[in-house]
Amino acid sequence: MHFTEYDTRVAAYAVIVDDAERILLTWYNGEGSHDPGWSLPGGGVDYDETLEQAVVREVREEAGYDVEVGAPLTTQAWGHRNGTTRSDKPYKAVKVLFAATITGGVLGTLEVGGSTDFAEWVPLADLDQRGRRASVVDVGIAAWARQRETSPA
């Protein structure tokens, strides 16, 4: 299918793991057509911003932190052939996940009336006990682990 025949959403996410091996996650409240659950801080890239600018904005809105955006870690893409509420065209989502480092701010969701209710530091070891999570969380953790294994100590 040619790219003009489907709608695309580009999103950018931060993978932030601290020295205590806790990951910063946000609680997606299910706004729209998905089930509530944990996600990475991030979301749709506005037309007039870069992927990195979107990460900075999204982390600030959803988790209250200022961040420095590092290198891209990985991508995730998925789609469906059924139309969305916006269009009757098939839909494709492309997510770019970046390493990021906190440079300031305080934990707390600044977004009002959006899709994120709160943010929390979750120990990686406890993730399976925390309930539903979006696949982007597992993709981000796997990419972070690969980067950690290959980075010089």
What keyword list fits this structure?
about 150 residues, alpha+beta, Nucleoside Triphosphate Pyrophosphohydrolase, 3-stranded antiparallel sheet, 2 helices, globular
What does this structure look like?
This protein is of the alpha+beta class. The protein has one domain (3-150): Nucleoside Triphosphate Pyrophosphohydrolase, CATH 3.90.79.10. The protein has two helices and seven strands; from the N terminus they run E-E-E-E-H-E-E-E-H. It has helices spanning 51-63, 135-150; strands spanning 7-15, 22-28, 37-39, 42-44, 65-80, 91-105, 116-123. The strands form two sheets. It has a four-stranded mixed beta sheet. A hairpin with an 8-residue loop joins strand 2 (22-28) and strand 3 (37-39). The protein starts with 6 loop residues before the first strand and ends with a helix.
Topology of this protein?
Layout: E1 7-15, E2 22-28, E3 37-39, E4 42-44, H1 51-63, E5 65-80, E6 91-105, E7 116-123, H2 135-150
Parallel strand pairs: 1-6
Antiparallel strand pairs: 1-4, 2-3, 2-7, 5-6
In short:
With 153 residues, the protein is α+β, with helices and mostly antiparallel strands.
